[in-house]
């Protein structure tokens, strides 16, 4: 099973593109993703209209892809559900310890505070995908609880697999998280409708994700202030989560505009051997974003 999963992640093939009557509306994105696939990038993408569930476009949306930090959304769902439970100590202060430390994204590793409230750690994850806060919360609630919650939501191709690690050895999960564009668009749609666990839980998770400062991928096309976009800007409102790792770029979220609202997910898996390859992937994701913006605005 593990070898099959690894094979799916490392195989490179052209994607199956579908869009029906919406294909002309998303021609720019289809063209960009098609060119990337021809050049060896594994692509998976999907967008649906929030009002009626109509599929606007899809490219291999059933394929399980590495999604890096997007899996942290599942941790936030479990934490939000715990905070809604009167038996859970919502005001607990959590300490960081030496085993939690990891580099890369996040600001807690640069702060003096040795301990923070649970909700503050979740906010740090929503805002900066904070790796240290992620590991402390995983240690607190447990990966098994996150997995059980994920299964209870009916997700079969999306999972948070592990702690955040600076280096992944042969005994570690090969990726922090995996997901399919199909399931990720469903997850964000359900969060937006208040259907994940409860309306209170969904709104709490949406609130944390609305702090996200990474608008470098699909959301780069929306013209929003990365540091302040919790309220509408020119009629545009975004909630999203991104994932970045070596050879991985992923972006999933909900975009609302004056005309429509969409849930989207785009994942790329590529040979990150030079800057040109990386910039091509990011530009392809931005082209999808431009199509989404035209649809909602």
Automatic annotation (TrEMBL):
Q: Does the keyword RNA-binding apply?
A: no
Q: Which InterPro entries match?
A: Beta-lactam/transpept-like (IPR012338), Beta-lactam_cat (IPR045155), Beta-lactam_class-A (IPR000871)
Alphabetized Pfam families for the sequence: Beta-lactamase2 (PF13354)
Domain of life the protein comes from: Bacteria
Task: Indicate the segments annotated as coiled coil, or none if absent.
Answer: none
- One GO BP: response to antibiotic
Residue ranges of the region described as Disordered = 1-23
Q: Which UniProt keywords apply?
A: Hydrolase
Basic residues bias (residue ranges): 1-16
Using the record's annotation, list all stretches that form the Beta-lactamase class A catalytic domain. 47-269
Q: Tell me yes or no: is Hydrolase among this UniProt entry's keywords.
A: yes
Q: Name one GO molecular function term.
A: beta-lactamase activity
Q: What protein is this chain from?
A: Serine hydrolase
Q: What is the lineage of its organism?
A: Bacteria, Bacillati, Actinomycetota, Actinomycetes, Micrococcales
